[in-house]
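Working notes for the structural subgroup meeting. M.R. asked for a predicted model of this chain before we commit to crystallization trials. I am recording the input and output together here so anyone reviewing the notebook later can reproduce the run.

Input as submitted:
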Amino acid sequence: MAGLGFGMSAFLIWGFTPFYFRALGDLGAVEILSHRVVWCVIFMLCVLTIGRQWPAVYSALSDRRVFATLFLSAGLVSINWGMFVFSIVTDQLVASTLGYFLSPLVSVFLGFVFLGERPSPTQWIAVALAAGAVTSQFIAYGSLPWIALTIAFTFALYGLIRKTVAAGAAVGLFVECLLLSPFSLAFLFWLQWHGTGSFGARGLDFDLLIAAAGVITGVPLLLFAASARRIRLTTIGLIQYFTPSTYLVLAVGFFGERFSTNEWVTFGLLWVGLILYSSEVWRTRQV
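Returned structure, recorded in token form:
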């Protein structure tokens, strides 16, 4: 039960992060992302020190293959985080929701392409339905849902890459943010130099709100890692849909975003695909 509780807590925190990022919305997506990276480094410094994991950090940094892999995953997670924040501050959270619902089916496709995995016929039908969902958006609006596709592919590729790297969740996140921090700090200092930076300009309460980005980023990942050690990945794979489901409720019910007939068609195709995919995973216990 503890493992399930850790997992649900992680997905619950992730599910309600749009409220937090909307509170920072007038900073802009790039400034929010930069603060997220920097404050996550500071938070993870404390976590790694308490957990005495510095030998593992040194091992990750000194191993060329691990370092290169984490450098690549850092780039993917920065794009994913940035696109997610962008969708929130521009009132397009429904697009992010579509992306995170798509990602498990994109993972099936990437596993076939890069790992030689052979999806079952049912899983292929699920992938085809996901492709149909994207096609319906293209037909309806005359352009690809690029926010959703970027989030889906970066998230799926990130999971694929992190699956192959010899670094724990905490160590991996710290190294990734550490690699991104020079770019983030340079941008934040540039803003401060030009007098347009937000930190220190709106009072202590707002500064603490910005700094909370480190906790909001790090805590759910640690909870997720604790959950993954205690329960089956099959179970985690099924409860992960709680987060994009929450995003959709927030986008439509609280933020007033549009959910037209076109969205019903798109999400309907996708949900049928996910039901097929999830039932197949549960039946075969494929993890």
